[in-house]
Amino acid sequence: MAFIAALLIGLSHQAPQNPRDEHLGGYIIVPHKGRVDRQFNAGYSMYIPAWPLLGTYPGHQFQSGLPGTWMFAQYDGAAPKDLYSDVEGGLGWWTDTRFPTPTPKFIMGGVGPNFSDIANGPAHGWGSWDAPRGLYGVAQLSSRLLFPIDGLDVKQGERGGLFGYGYLNLPLCEGKSTTEGKPVPTGANSWTLFLNTQNFKGPVAFFLPNFWAHSAAKEPRFVGQLLDTRPAEPNRAVQMETQHTPCQMAQDSKGDWYARISPISFPLDSDGKSTLIHQDTAYNHTALFDEVSAWFAGGKPSVGKVHPEGSYQRDFGDNGYATWQIWWNSPGKKEQKVPIDWKGFGSLKSIDAHTFGGDFSAPLITRRDGLATLPEYYRLENSSDEKKARWVALDSTQVPSETGLQKVQWTRPKERLPEPYTTPTDPGSTWKKPGPVAGPYRAALGDGSVVTYYWYRFADQPALLNSDLSKAERERLQVKVEKIHRAWNIDRDYLAPPTRGRLASLDPAQIVKPPKGLEVGYVPIATRQEWGGK
Fold first, then answer.
1. DSSP assigned state of 14
2. How do the domains of the chain map onto residue ranges?
3. What is the mean pLDDT of the segment spanning 494-500?
C-alpha cells in the first residue's frame, strides 16, 4: 500500500476510525462529433434537465453546476494570451447562493477579463455598490419575468423537466467610439438570455456592452478582444462541474478504507434513460439578428421565432466520461485524491444524435420517483498502484459495521440566517433618481425568500443609467424595447422546442403582470431579497 499509505500517513491503522468529513468533486465530460462552421457565431441554446442533484442541501461549501457551457469570444487566429472572459452561468448551486434548496437556480455568469468582474443577473454580481464589479452588468428586458437577485428559481420539486436557455445577439445597443470618456470603442453586441420553460418563453435580460468594454478602457490590450465586439465561438465545451459534495471516510481494523457519499441522483426519462443535454444549438445572424435589425429599421415586425435555417444542432459522441474523485486531507500532506470507478455503475453516451445522457441500470443503482440514485458506498482498491487506485462501489452490507458509515445521516446543517440582498437607498442614487414609477411589490418564492421589486421605465433602470449610455442612446433603446413588449408574448416558442421529454417550470411567483398603463416599456427590478421565515 505504498502509494495510498503515503497519502494517508498520520492516520491510525490500528483501530477503526470514526467517519471523517471529506468531499467528492470532478467533471462530466461531454463529447461532440466534428466542428461547427465558424459562421454560427451569433449565440447558442440548449436544454438541460433541472433536478435535485442531492436529496438534502449539504450547506454552503457545496458547489455544483448541472451540465453547462462556456461561451467565449471567437477570434480569427489564436486567442489572446492571459485573457479569460466568457459567459458561463447556468443551472446549479454556488457557495454564495443565499437562499439555496435542493432545487437548482439559474444565474447568467458573465465573466469580465480574468475575473475582474462578474455579472449574474440584474443587480447581482461582484463588488459592492460603492465599488461595483458587475452589479450593473445586466439590463432587465422582460416585462413579465421578475429576476430575483439570488438567481432565477426553478419551481420547487422539479425532477428532470427540460430547462431551455441560451444567448442570442440582438441589435439592441449601438456601437460607440468612446468608452467612459476615453478613445476606446464599445461594441454593439447585446447578448440576450432567452428561455424556454413551461410557464415563460422568450427574452429575459441582456449583458450591457459596457460590462465588457469598460475593462478595455482600463487595459488597452483588451480593446476589440471581448464579447462586446467579438462574435461567439460556436465550438463550445459542454461539461458538468461538481465541487465539495459531502463524503465520509473510515477505516476498518484490517486497514481497509471505505467511503460513503451523500446520495447523488440523475434524472430518469420515461424510457428509463437519463437525459443530461438536449439540442445543443449554435446560431448565425440569419437565425434572428437580421430579421430584428430590419424590423427596428422600419421593416416588417418580427415575431421573435428563431429560424431553423440559421441554426446548427451539434451531434454528440459516445465517449463521455467522468473525472469524479474523492478528495481528503492528510496531516502534513497536500490535499489528496483518488478517482471513483464510474464504469462499475454507469456509462455516459449519446441517447440520439442530439441528446447526451447516462445509462444507470446497474444493480447498485436505486431508481424511483423519476431519479436514478448512484451507489453511496465505496471501497478503496489497488491502493498500492497510483495509476490503478480506485474507489469501487459496493452494497452497504459489504461495508464493515465497525466503520460506522451505515450510521451516517445526511442532514442540512444549521447555518446562520442569510443576509438580505439590498440595493442603494440614497435619494441621489440611480436607484432613486429618476427612480421607479410603481411599487413596492413583493413576491414570496419557493426557496423561502421574499423579493421586493419596483417597476421602472426600461431606459431609467439603474443598470442602464450606469452603462455609459447617453440619454439619447437610452431613448433609442427604449423605442426598440417597446416594440418587443408589444409584439413578443411569453407563451409562444422562440427557441425550437425539445423533441423529447417535457419542459420544466419556473417558480410561478416570478411571473408578474405589469400594473395598468405600464404594460409597454416598463420592467420589474428587484431591490431587496430577504429570508421570509419559511
1. S
2. 2-407
3. 97
Residue pair 266/371 in contact (Cβ under 8 Å)? The answer is yes
In the β-sheet with 371-373, what is the strand arrangement from edge to edge? 265-267, 371-373, 366-368
Give the pLDDT score at 333: 66
Q: What is the largest CA-CA distance in the chain?
A: 82
H or E stretch covering 211: helix 209-218
- Summarised one tens digit per residue, pLDDT across range 68-113 is 999 999 999 999 999 999 999 999 999 999 999 999 999 999 999 9
Give the pLDDT confidence of 220-244 residue by residue, as tens digits.
999 999 999 999 999 999 999 998 8
**What pLDDT shows up at residue 386?**
82
Residues 510 and 152 sit within 8 Å (Cβ to Cβ): yes
The residue assigned the cell 492516520 is 11
Give the mean model confidence (pLDDT) for residues 447-452: 98
Angstrom distance (rounded) from CA 102 to CA 495: 27
Cell numbers at residue 111, please? 465573466
Reply yes or no on whether the pLDDT at 301 is more than 90. yes
Per-residue CA distances from 285 to 171, 205, 312 (Å): 10, 19, 12
Look at residues 380, 410, 409 and name the one whose alpha carbon lies nearest to residue 394: 380
* Four-CA torsion 37, 39, 41, 45, nearest 10 degrees: -60
CA gap 433, 137 in Å, rounded: 19
Provide the 10 A C-beta neighbour count for residue 298: 6
If residue 477 lies in a helix (H) or strand (E), which one and from where to where?
A: helix 471-487
Cis peptide before 185 (omega within 30 of 0): no
Q: Buried b / exposed e across 18-39, counting CB within 10 Å, b at 16+?
A: ebeebbbbbbbebbbeeebeee
59-63, 81-85, 496-500, 527-531: the lowest-pLDDT one: 59-63
* CA nearest neighbour of 289 among 178, 211, 194: 194
Q: Is the dihedral of CA 377, 54, 117, 36 positive or negative?
A: positive
Radius of gyration over alpha carbons of the chain, in Å? 24
191: pLDDT strictly greater than 90: yes
Reduced to 3 states, what is the DSSP secondary structure of residue 167?
A: strand
